Amino acid sequence: MISKLLFQKDKFFILFLFLFSLIFNQYYGNQGVFPLDSFHFFDSGYRVLNGDIPFMDFWLVKGPLLDYFQAGLFYLFGTHWQIYVLHASIINAIISICTFFLLKNFSLKSEYCFLFSLLFSILAYPSSGTPFIDHHSSFFSLLGIYCLILAIYNKKKLYWVLLPIFFILAFFSKQVPATYIILSISLILVLYFYLNKTLEGLKYSSISFLLLIIFILIFGKSQGIKLEAFLDQYIFYPPTIGLERIITYDLISVSILEKYIFVFISILPLVYINFLNFFKDKSYIKKNNFFLFLILLFFTISLIFHQTLTKNQIFIFFLIPVLTAFSQISLIQSKLKFKKFICFIIIFSCVFSTFKYHFRINDERKFHELSNVNLELAISAKEIDKKLSGLNWITPQYYNDPKSEINLINKIKLILKQDDRNKMLITNYPFFSVILNKKIISPSRLYTGDGTTHPIKGNKYVQKYKALMDNLILKNNISVIYITNIGNEKINFHYIDDYSHCFEKKIILEQLTSYNLENCS
Questions:
Q1: β-strand 423-426 against 480-484: which pairing, if any?
Q2: What is the rounded radius of gyration, in angstroms, for the C-alpha atoms of the chain?
Q3: How far apart are CA 150 and CA 167, in angstroms?
Q4: With a threshold of 0.70, does the pTM exceed it?
Q5: Which of 8, 9, 61, 128 could make a disulfide contact with 132, Cβ separation 3.0–4.6 Å?
Q6: How far is CA 60 from CA 64, 80, 227, 454, in A?
Q7: pLDDT tens digits, residue range 423-452?
Q8: What b/e sequence results for 135-166 when a residue is b if at least 16 CB atoms lie within 10 Å of its CB, and e otherwise?
Q9: CB-hemisphere CA count at 13 Å for 204?
């Protein structure tokens, strides 16, 4: 009878978690936008749905998995902003429920499993609300971490099979932090297999990995993706962007300690107990609890390294509930004095920090640069197009006057709509293909000035990007190239200069320039 009641309670917790994490993210995904990030996969998902091929029809540095996943959702449910946000909401729900199931494996009370999973769902995807490569890469990596933990504790073949699948999904979401995590976990696995004198788990993971690679190669071939294009854009080009950051990186600094103080507090009991056990018991290095500690420690270090290296807004506070949960599990299993009091302190710290970062990051939309913006000034994005219904439009670029921005977007929309020629569009507001329901060619998803989206002058891959652009113009019979500068960041797309001998430049609006091409072949 008791077990039946517990089962019913767990089902209620799971259902509540699913609905809450889905609705919670859906709500925050509609509160303002930072066009460069918020619409990252909006047009590209639509383009893939309509036959465009990543790496061949647009230069792709990161995240082909998100393009295909978004195209699938658009195919199933229609092309709409709410379906776009649903992409992130689904991931938030899945990873939150998986966190609950993982914690249940360690005999933690259901109420605590539910609490930590709920807090996790608040800090996980809602910081962005919309699909984002760093989030995807981190969460698929976390699912890989969960599989590894369960593989070690439960000895089930299924988890060894799933392990490489999640890490490859993470890598095809974004190369980092997935690569950092994969490398660190590989070191732990070498130690694990060496000490346990068995390679059984490695056998199942290797077979799974090889089959998945074969599937990817077949899929890429069927899509018409050339291996050279994939290697150039996704493997060889990205290191040319971030090498300087790695050289000047300083892991141990006061600012890092300050920024991640609650992350360090959440893992501190786990670190202390494992170091205590390590020095007390020489055989402790072979035990599952020690490998659990190493896995969580290396995962945390990898994410902090990635976060500080990219210098983006912080999104990894979702670590706090997970690390707190395992610190509590470790405390319960220990013989420490005052362990109940310490549990109370870290749980209080976890709840406090969750609400602290929720209000600072989710509520203020800090990840999308809206923390000093009055969100009440937002206007319904339905005024741009009904496909954007439900989105409260306000951006950092026009934070005092979103109506003017919408009017400007509508002017550009009308100009593009009335032009029946085959066109190429260079913009950091990547939603015009969707709202015009037209195939608009673009050689990249976005256009930043630091080389993170496409090669810039001085990079050795400039000529390969130029060749891709030439091919797009020729293949699609492009007659005009439009460049928009809607926001504060002016797009300096130097490739347009390569066609100066055969274009007629026309400034249509202050924020819209056209380049009419003639005999550019």
A1: parallel
A2: 25
A3: 15
A4: yes
A5: 128
A6: 7, 23, 13, 8
A7: 999 999 999 999 999 889 999 999 998 889
A8: bbbbbbbbbbbbbbbbbbbeeeeebbbbbbbb
A9: 15
